[in-house]
């Protein structure tokens, strides 16, 4: 054995023991007669002490050791005279008897400490060094702990973990597929799964009535903080269940994870909110309920007074920011510029200040009487000291812009503490959404989502009004997971494909394997998929999932450490029967 102990386990009770440690040199300090080395491994840091008076040769050897050298240290555990209460091993140090250099190291391109001097791209390039930093290392260990607890809960609930293939058939709907050319059947392609959706439904047909998998999924889509081209899902499916059976089971999983990982208890059921209420009150299907500031529909209240901005708009809505009536003109101008950003798209901002003295003042007050402004305030539930912020335009884009403005105000007013968690089930989504450009309906979730039974008759007469038997778990404004009760009847599934614009031939070509399986007895079933990376990032108190993935991609989808995606050789292209445009 190279070591008898790790660098994080020794304490004052270990004093007097002869030990052998191994690890990386975090830093060294030469104080003339004595040299100190902080030795680091996965478990912690232990201080090594070399005394010139006791062993000058050993001390000279220690002075030649550089940062990130891999060493073996042998010595005796001693109580420290100047203890460090910030370190778990801060009560002791190792008086050195022997030092062995196991591997030398070049000076790293950035300091491997919490307050590093390395930029993000540099740390991504040398990710194996970045992973030595305590914070990033602990993120990966947290990921392991969450996965372990997920498996404990699912096993206890009778679920079987089944692996599904990564090389599958490309199917329409959803994001773009990553495709893999076949060498043995040239001109044909596999796709990497965006999710194991149809495969887990086939497992239900096969009789595995409770399936789960912590599985890699792949989507070729634009990236942001909570997206990666390859990501991990907790994928789940159950047979002989209705919606509430699924919600109760996986609400139980959420409560279990919060208790085991964060020590947070939820006693009552998670609240439920319809999609329509979420959109009307918060402008989004994933509302953050850590604070109020609901959207108020002011359309009927403000129109007809000669103010063109409001009179010519389909929808006018506002939010009430408590205690903000003293906002300066500069602050209001900043908010105006915020909502005019291209990604938000509002044309401007109208405000109403409700002064502490009861006076009402608005940026549009030349069109409205004090009584009119008081009506605005009453409609929004404003009181003295509050500020009402109003946007106008098309209904959907204005609600979306108000949602962004609400989150911005929540951030400015410190209403979104990371230590507070507000889970919510959003239910009764629309089954379909109309695409003007293509002139057809698309599935809002996926084409295997069941319509609510009471809306089934509308599938052929008014499909835009059909509600899905679908649900999302939203926590602090983040969609943590989503799922639905599935279609299990072949006739309903064929109807769904027809509404989506598939001919019978196209449906059979793309999904014939599933339709055929339904002929042999498909049970009623439903499920959910959780964003595992998002769970871990939330437990770690961060928005970005990147630092909770061992080897992530950057915002361009590149792995700068492996320098990929990269070109392949002409020989490989020939074997695959591929010719690239513009390549000789």
Distance between the termini: 55 Å
What number is the mean pLDDT? 94
Separate helix tally: 16
Give a count of the beta strands, DSSP E runs of length 2 or more. 22
- Identify the strand order in the major beta sheet: 6-9-10-22-21-20-17-11
**Low-pLDDT segments:** none
Number of discrete domains: 3
The CATH homologous superfamily of the largest domain is called: Bira Bifunctional Protein, Domain 2
Structural class computed from helices and strand pairing: alpha+beta
Could you give a short account of the major beta sheet? Answer: 8 strands, mixed
- Relative helix content: 25-40%
Return the CATH architecture of the largest domain: 2-Layer Sandwich
What oligomeric state best describes the polypeptide chains here? single chain
By CATH reckoning, the class of the largest domain would read Alpha Beta
- Rough outline: globular
CATH fold annotation of the largest domain:
BirA Bifunctional Protein, domain 2
In what range is the share of β-strand residues? 15-25%
Evaluate the radius of gyration: 30 Å
Describe the protein's architecture and organization.
With 584 residues, this protein is α+β, with helices and mostly antiparallel strands. The protein folds into three domains: 12-103, OB fold (Dihydrolipoamide Acetyltransferase, E2P) (Beta Barrel), CATH 2.40.50.140; 137-273 and 423-570, Bira Bifunctional Protein, Domain 2 (BirA Bifunctional Protein, domain 2, 2-Layer Sandwich), CATH 3.30.930.10; 291-412, 2-Layer Sandwich (Gyrase A, domain 2). It contains 16 helices and 22 strands. A hairpin with a 5-residue loop joins β14 (350-354) and β15 (360-362). The protein is globular, with a radius of gyration of 30 Å.
